[in-house]
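[job 0417] fold request received: Transcriptional regulator
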Amino acid sequence: MCPSNDQEADRIANGDAPYTKLIEAMRPLAGKWKIEILWILAQRSHRFGELRRSLPGITQHMLTLRLREMEADGLIRRTVYPESVLRVEYEVSEGAHGLKPAFKALVEWSEQYGPLSRQRAADEIVRALPNIAA
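[job 0417] inference complete; emitting structure tokens
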């Protein structure tokens, strides 16, 4: 039996829409710079200054805000080393390592259907242009 439009509207109003789980799953990753920060930290741990230099255009305030959010969401781990000059390092958490297959799948999708495939096609056209003029 197919649900009526009223039943479907009630499900959506109660937060039981088919996409609710996807929206909730994506929430910790939503926000400018979060994916970039995760990608950089997935390579190795970084100090704050290294991270900032790796992300041209990010402000100190925005980086601090995003790091705090991501730490609260369990995506990154912050380690403080009590040395004469305080040293703090950031790295991805064990849970965030579980995102690597999803990121890899996203890149593969993009190479086949998305922006990376369009860029590759444009690059091939540009490379072919000198041959056409000859």
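[job 0417] notes: The chain has two domains: 32-95, 99-134. Residues 19 and 126 are 40 Å apart (CA to CA).
[job 0417] exit 0
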